[in-house]
Amino acid sequence: MLTGTAPSTQLVRRVNAGAMLKAMRGAGVVTGTELMASTGLSRATVISICDELVRLGWLQELENQRGAGEYVKGRPARRFVFDDSAATVIGIDIGANKITAIVADMAGTPLSQVTMSFRTDTVGADERADVLDKIAADALDKAGATTDSVLAVSVGVAAPVSRDGDVLTVQEFWKSFDVRGIISERHGWKVLLENDANLAALAERWQGTAQGVDNLVVMLAGDRLGSGILESGRLLHGQRGGFGELGFLDNVDGVGDTYGIAHYAVLWGQEALETARDSTVLSELCGQDPAALTAEMVFKAAADGDHAALKALDRVAGRMARVIGSIATLVNPELVVIAGGVAPSAQALLPGIGKQLPDFTFTPPRLAASVLGDGIVSLGAIRHALDYVEEHALDLYPASLPKHTAAKNTAAGHTAAGHTAAG
Questions:
Q1: CATH number, position 380
Q2: d(Cα 51, Cα 54) in Å, to the nearest integer?
Q3: What is the mean predicted confidence (pLDDT) over 141-167?
């Protein structure tokens, strides 16, 4: 009886502590009564966990000060504030042509962002690890944080990843590059691995246009298509991490592969130029050389009313309607967000996609383009790392929570201002 009860009690306590940390981040100074209201926990549970979180370094308890002559009946309410600068997390996006790293504090506020152009498939595992070391070191230095302030690192990769953080074994490139093992061995950090589109979905629901949306698809749609899917607010992985993989599009009529918006904007823009009888804005932008055409040129020319560019983008919108229609039929989301570097341009495609979408699904979702930019995967990695920290807050002891002076000083003014405003 006791054997089964103790682990269960500890698990409940961890869950409660995570709920309280989540409620306190960004809330400023809060009282036990306010935490009871926001979490639904009893006063005894709230105070007990607050005392433990203060001991571990997560919270600060503020002194209760009364003005001269002020009289308040009963014991003054205990006031607590979350220590945003207690530690840091790192979010890393390993893309095909660049790596982006963000360092954030415990409130999820980015302290730095560093991007480095790099083709990870052209060098060996040791060289890739060295580049990851450099970009993480640069990001920490720019943030004014130390390596021992890092509680968790989340890494996004363009491959299926299981719930346990293992890359699908058929992905040969990632089999030869043990990201988690290498980073953990070199620094002793807790390293989490996740699919890049899944991280984009976490970012979008956290800080993007999908805040508050529980049934969501986020599509990275640049050169390739990838999707992260949330159902009832839960990120879906499938048995081995393949949920949301879009290989089935190879067999969808009018789609045929998983190339994305940027790829087809260029391809069909080139085809439109070849059939155009007169010089167009598009031909002028690429210097009369279709081989020099970029997706940005196609969208720019279309915005100027260029008929060749509009023809190309109409084809892209039709293809994306088929893609989104297929996904909507399978998972029935409330909202589909087009994300990644192509998102600002993709805004122009939404009316065309929305008009054709009912032809391909009986349950057309709302459509939106992300406003989080091409750092969306790294931002989602920050959310992923913070989720881990919240879940394991009671297992992280003071030795794991050093007060890195530089970040503490940097955050002091921000924290005080934020708490005053939020109070």
A1: 3.30.420.40
A2: 5
A3: 90
